[in-house]
# Entry
Amino acid sequence: MELKVLGCSGGVGGQLRTTTLLIDEDIVIDAGTGLGDLNLQAMSCIRHIFLTHSHLDHITSIPFLVDTMFDNIKEPIIIHGLAATIDALKKHIFNNIIWPDFSRLPDSEHPVMQYQVMELGETIELNNRKIEMIEVNHIVPGVGYHVESETGTFAFSGDTTTNDTFWDALNKHDKLDLLIVESAFANKDIELCHLSGHYCAELLGPDLAKLNHKPEVYISHNKPGAEGLIFGECQKAILTHTIHPLSSGQSFTI
Ligand SMILES: [Zn+2]
Ligand SMILES: [Zn+2]
# Structure
């Protein structure tokens, strides 16, 4: 399984892109600004989008993707997410005001995109890649994913603050090779972390200690400009795992 990081920042500016993880050629987890860096050929290969939650930095490229691919799509792109996430897309994005309702275009029998509600704990298997949805703790209903192929496993936290659900679910699996977990803010913004449902190093350290596996851990979703500070604080606070910074363009064979 190939994992390519198209975006993993908390914002934009220069080379920064918001969350998009490409699995092989056909699956993405989240559709942030990083998705827009794919060329048309690569975009046409995307068949499934798994969303962690409804926030704009994670969904912003869906409207442009389906519009750009409109003439080339033979089968709908499937948008997987919690019912609350799908409802938000229907109500606030594809509402014929902000953007056309592409789930009914060119016609409702053959749309270019199709919603598929997923339940917490559900696993979907696509060509030997098993994708499990796991509850996390964000300011809107949010999830992370555990992805398993015949050769390896990785997990992605999405946006979250302190929780047990994500760590408990990962501990139920036999192994974990790679983990991407967010740490959005510096420790001085711990109150903001509580209010907005994000980690800082002080909150992430004790939570990572709940994880029984010892994967390589990559830190994502940093506030632009604070990457160095956040990573330094994570190095001090995380005593149980080896951590690395994550940046757009990195890829992993798992
Ligand atoms: Zn969010
Ligand atoms: Zn976010």
Notes: The chain has a mean pLDDT of 97.
